[in-house]
Each structure stands twice: as structure tokens, then as C-alpha cells.
Design a protein that fits this description.
The structure is a single chain. The protein has 391 residues and is mainly beta. It contains 3 helices and 26 strands. The strands form 4 sheets. Strands 1, 3, 4, 7, 8, 9, 11, 12, 13, 14, 15 and 17 form a 12-stranded mixed sheet that branches. A 6-stranded antiparallel sheet has the order 2-5-6-18-10-16. Strand 5 and strand 6 form a beta hairpin. The N and C termini lie far apart (47 Å).
């Protein structure tokens, strides 16, 4: 497993990882040339459109997010199928050595990266300063699916710049915050492991390295198919370790995959970045058929992810009983003065301090013992525990 540094040349949507030092200079020159020749202009995505261009990009949800193929580490073909919720790798030819750089970083993101910007209201072309109150409100969630074979990581790439950026800013010079949900094969983050922490309801190994900017990677100790969190939760841990500064600017929040071997079937099935009091964007298309009425028994467990002045984020895990369920609704009562601001992976019908969330069309039917998770951002005081019913 390599510990060599990585460098990020201009055309990449994601950083250039794990390249041996003797190759760095040649890589930069080649990448700069490729930037001039192949950087694609984002275009709106049609339903299930396909991108096979090396650095091809498109936009989804009216421009709110950018999706990019970003096949930077190989000449072999890679294609992604893009829909309004995310993307799926449909072809992933070739392979690279697992002690070197990955083949690519296909990604979906909000913000700006190397001059390609989304229309997200949350992260504009001038970024969001960490000390700004808006930074504390930024939440993100992703759901992913993984194939049964291959060597890859599934990770967020969240970028920070030392000074206020613009839409044309290239390589960010502050920090790269990576959050790994999954890794398969003999690969590891840049640098070395420095700690193990509990954040956002999970346990993570912390890795640190520097390749001209700080690379801080949080690797989940058990594989997850989805995660939701406040960006501030992880940055605060970075800050406490001396790996970041409150004067820096957040420039983009990205989620995707770094494949070395294989990769076909890797998919982002849902992605969101919200903040600044923005209501959530409905990323799931309206159901084409009515969800079956609830049936069977279930339980719901509350977990506080993080809190800040005047708000908090929480996850709720719904688990089916011995007979399974064909639909579920979770109910609870938040503390007086608290309320629900937005919900993902569920439909909220409550008001005031009443929490009432029903399943979406895609997560209502659960086999016996199976579970699903929805998340929400609340206003007011954050309860450390919450009694819930599920039926």
C-alpha cells in the first residue's frame, strides 16, 4: 500500500493521488497540456445520459450539481450514466497498480473546481469562509452502491482554499478533506494514520499527509452505503489537530469513487448539499406507483450527529421486525421550540415540534431484520435522545 504523495494537475476534478515523487514533475507538465486540450464545458444532462469523454462534465437538477467522468489516470475507456440523482459507472476498462495512482475520480459535486461551477446557492464561486456562520449550516448526504469485485475507494473530497477563491481558481492550496465510506483491496490514503475518532455517529481512522496542501482522510472502520453529516463536524476535528484554519474557504463538496481495478457498477444513487436555511431539493423522482400501505412491525432509533447554535442534525434508523414491513411511518416529539427544517430519504408531514416521517417509494419495503436510515436537520435545541414509534 503506497504512502507516496499525490499532486493535483489543472484538468482534474479530483486530486491526483498516490503518485511516486519521481513522476510528479512529468505528471504536472502532461496534465497542464491535457487541461488545454480536453477540459470539457459542462452541459445539462438528459435523463440517463452517458459520458465517455475523458474529462466530460454535465449538470443535473437545473445546474445545482456538476457530474464529471474525470478519467485522469488511464487511457482506457470509462463511461458513466448520469441521471438527476447521481451517476453509475457503466464501463471501466484497464487497471492501475494498487501501489500507485487510481484510474479516475468520477464525481458529483456542489461548488467550483478548476473553473467548472455548479449553480448551488450553498457554495458560490467565492466559496464559504469557515468562520462565516453559513459554514456551520452546510450539510451533505450521499447514498452509494458497490459491485462485488474490484479495487476502489468510495469517498467524499471536500476542498478548502487559504484565500478567497474565484470561479477560475485552480488547485486549492489549503486542505483536502476526504471521507472514505468504503475501500476494497490493498489501498490506503495519503500519509499515515494518526488517530481513531468517533464523529457523525461512526468510528473513523484519521490519516494525515501533505502534498503541498494538507490531505486529511477519515476512513470509516466499517463499510457504509450511505452517510449524512455536517461538514463542520469533520473540519472542527481537523482544526483541533492543526490541519486547517478558520480563515480558509470551502470551495466544493464532492462525492465519488477512485477505482484502481474494475469499477463497473459503482454508483451514487443520491446526493445532496444543503445550507444557509435552504429547503432540501427533492432528488428522488416522484413515485410511479403508490407505496403499499404500512404492514408488519418496525422500530426506530434516533442518533444525534451534530449540533450548533440554533440547530442540529440527526439520523433515524428504521429496522423491520420478524415479519418485515411494506411501508413505515416514524413519529416522535421534539423538545418545545424545536422543529424539522429538512429531511432526506423520507417524507416529512409533521409540523411544529412534531416529527412525522414516512418512507420514500424506494425504502419502504424491508425484509425481516433489514434496516434503512433517514436524516434530518432540526432547528432549536438538539435532543440527545428521542422516543420514537414506528408503524
Amino acid at each position: 500500500m503506497s504512502r507516496s504523495p499525490r499532486l493535483s494537475p489543472a484538468p482534474r476534478i479530483s486530486p491526483l493521488p498516490r503518485r511516486s515523487p519521481r513522476l510528479l514533475a512529468a505528471s504536472v507538465a502532461l496534465a497542464a497540456l491535457l487541461a488545454l486540450l480536453t477540459l470539457a464545458t459542462a452541459r445539462p444532462a438528459a435523463a440517463d445520459s452517458e459520458i465517455c469523454e475523458q474529462y466530460g462534465t454535465t449538470t443535473v437538477q437545473g445546474g445545482r450539481y456538476v457530474v464529471g467522468n474525470n478519467r485522469w489516470g488511464t487511457s482506457a475507456t470509462q463511461c458513466i450514466s448520469v441521471n438527476d440523482r447521481g451517476f453509475r459507472i457503466t464501463r471501466a476498462d484497464g487497471q492501475t497498480a494498487t501501489n500507485g495512482a487510481p484510474k479516475s475520480y468520477p464525481t458529483i459535486y456542489a461548488g467550483c473546481h478548476y473553473g467548472t461551477c455548479s449553480s448551488s446557492e450553498v457554495i458560490g464561486p467565492n466559496g464559504v469562509r469557515v468562520s462565516d456562520s453559513r459554514f456551520a449550516s452546510i450539510q451533505t448526504s450521499v447514498s452509494m452502491t458497490y459491485p462485488s469485485s474490484g479495487t476502489y475507494d468510495a469517498a467524499y473530497d471536500i476542498w478548502f482554499h487559504r484565500s478567497q477563491p474565484s470561479a477560475t481558481t485552480g488547485q486549492n492550496d489549503g486542505a483536502e478533506l476526504m471521507i472514505w465510506l468504503n475501500r476494497q483491496g490493498s489501498i490506503q490514503p495519503i500519509g499515515s494514520k494518526v488517530a481513531t475518532v468517533n464523529l457523525a455517529g461512526s468510528t473513523w481512522d484519521v490519516w494525515f499527509g501533505n502534498t503541498g496542501w494538507n490531505v486529511v482522510s477519515y476512513v470509516r472502520t466499517s463499510t457504509a452505503g450511505s452517510v449524512s453529516f455536517s461538514v463542520k463536524t469533520f473540519f472542527d476535528d481537523m482544526l483541533a489537530r492543526g490541519y486547517g484554519q478558520s480563515s480558509w474557504y470551502l470551495t466544493s463538496v464532492q462525492a465519488g469513487f477512485e477505482p484502481w481495478i474494475g469499477g463497473t457498477g459503482l454508483a451514487v444513487t443520491d446526493f445532496s448539499v444543503t445550507g444557509n436555511g435552504q429547503p432540501p431539493t427533492q432528488t428522488t423522482p416522484p413515485p410511479t406507483q403508490t407505496t403499499p400501505p404500512p404492514g408488519g412491525s418496525c422500530s426506530a432509533t434516533y442518533a444525534l450527529v451534530g449540533s450548533w447554535g440554533g440547530g442540529f442534525q440527526a439520523n433515524v434508523t428504521v429496522k423491520a421486525g420478524s415479519s418485515g414491513v411494506t411501508g413505515w411511518t416514524v413519529r416522535g416529539t421534539l423538545p418545545s421550540g424545536s422543529g424539522v427544517q429538512n429531511v432526506w430519504n423520507g417524507r416529512s408531514t409533521g409540523s411544529g415540534s412534531s416529527l412525522v416521517v414516512a418512507n420514500e417509494s424506494y425504502n419502504g419495503s424491508l425484509a425481516p431484520g433489514a434496516s434503512t436510515t433517514f436524516g434530518f436537520v432540526g432547528t432549536g435545541n438538539a435532543p440527545s435522545s428521542l422516543a420514537l414509534t414506528c408503524g
